[in-house]
Structures are given as structure tokens and as C-alpha cells.
Amino acid sequence: MWLLNPSKCALLPLLSYSKAGLLACTVAFTATVQANDELTNNELEAPSQTQQEPQHEAAVSKAISTSCTNSLSYKFFYKSSHVGNINRQQKWHNQQADMSTSGEVSFLMFNFTGNHQSKVYWNDTQKQYLTREFKQDVKGLTHTKVSALFSDNGLVSKVIANDEKAEYSDFKLPILDFEAISTQMRQNLISNTKEFDFLMQKSDELGHYYFSVVGEEDLNVLGKNYRTIKVQQVKKKDRKLYLWFAPELDYQLVKSTYKRKIIDIEANLSQFDLGCAKLSLNEAKPQQGL
To answer: Which domain of life, per UniProt (predicted)?
Structure first.
């Protein structure tokens, strides 16, 4: 994940973006912390494997013909101390979205500010959400600027990181940014998929991340109780990353925790305006008779 940082999707992901340090968000922030953490330990990601097919392909979110916007804010805590905020916006039209995440988090030796802008779309060939392109600007231990373009149904990416160009490819899994991962993770939960994995584009390499649904849990979110779906990152024995998504809140991410060595971070939904969910409800209402 990273220090900052789908849609119709929640935040997710929690993966790393660059060796300069950024994981991507508790699906924004947890990514930055985890990325720096992984860099310190010089880890190797598992080899790419085929992603599990959705159990209910028909459950793909209905395309919205009218534009709509979701806005979500999260507060980050380090051992109960408020250490930062992340703001996310998702502008949808049909099955495409312009997504942006910005924020600032500061604790221990970590101090990050940044923003990430991404274009995400539904791909009929891969039967999932993919990244079309993204731009990222993060200031922390270093100043990292990254831009990427994706082609060949997501199997090829061209990246420019601090003026250095590189190209990546994979024969099995499409390459995604964390916003597309967030969006597809949300879609997997709607489809009742229990196990899933993603290949994420970092600034200078690809990372393979695995997740598993571990059950349901009641959480108090902004003063109201919700039944949530709990997701755990797996195949990483040296850390604990959990994500909670609320079906009643359009399957958006409402909480995440990340623990590893001295790192102990929690992110909680602090404010939201789910314009796309409101629009879907309005479209589902029967027309009034004359």
C-alpha cells in the first residue's frame, strides 16, 4: 500500500509503488509504508500466477450512463495517534473512471505528501477492470514522479520514473495500478470471489499480491453499525494487513490495518459522499404513474 492514495470501488490496496517508498493506500497509504518496509528487507515477490476467475461474472457492476462521483476521506492513526489524512475522488461514466488520491501522513521517520491520478476502465477481453494510465508525484524520503501507459489488454506497461524509461510485460496477469486493484477487488467481493491476486506496477518493478476473504465482522463506522467483509493479505508471513469493506456502503473500504515490526497503522473512513450509489438507487426506483 502506500501512504496515500476505487468508484465504484473502495480504496484498497496496500501495496508498494516504488523503492523511493510508496505503497499505495490502505489502498492509498498502507502502500507507501509497506513499500518502504519491503525495500528495507529487500524482498522478492512470488512469481506471477493466473488470477482466479470470478464466481459470478454476471455480477459485474451495472454501467452508469450518467456521470457520477464518489468522494471518500480517511484518517490515519499510528498506535491511536492521528498522523494524517487521505482524500479520494472517483469520477465515473459508464465503466470508466478518472480517479485521484491525495494526502499527507507523518509518523516516526516517515513523512509523505503526494497525489496519484489514474484512468481505470472495464476490459471485456480480461473481464476485469484495468488501468489505462496513471501519474504519481510523491515527496518523502525522496521525490518520485512516475507516469505509466498500459496496452495489450493490460499485459504491457511503459513507465517513466524520474525521467528513466522502462517497459514491463506479463503473459498471464494484466498489470494494474492500485486504483484498478481497488476497483477490481471491490468487484470480486460483489461477485463473492474468496481468493484473488493482482500484479501491480511499481515505479521500477512489478509486485504480486495475494488476498483472501477471511469472514464477516460488525464495525461501527461514523456512529453506525455495519456488517463488513474482512479481507487479509496472504503469502506474507512477516506482516499483517487487513481490509474491511461495507456492502451497505457500496462495498467501499471503511477500515484497514497494517502491522509489521514497529509499523502499526490504522486507517478509518472519516467522510464520504457516494454519488454513484445514490444514482444507482434512483435509477432502480419505479417510474411514477401520470
So the answer is: Bacteria
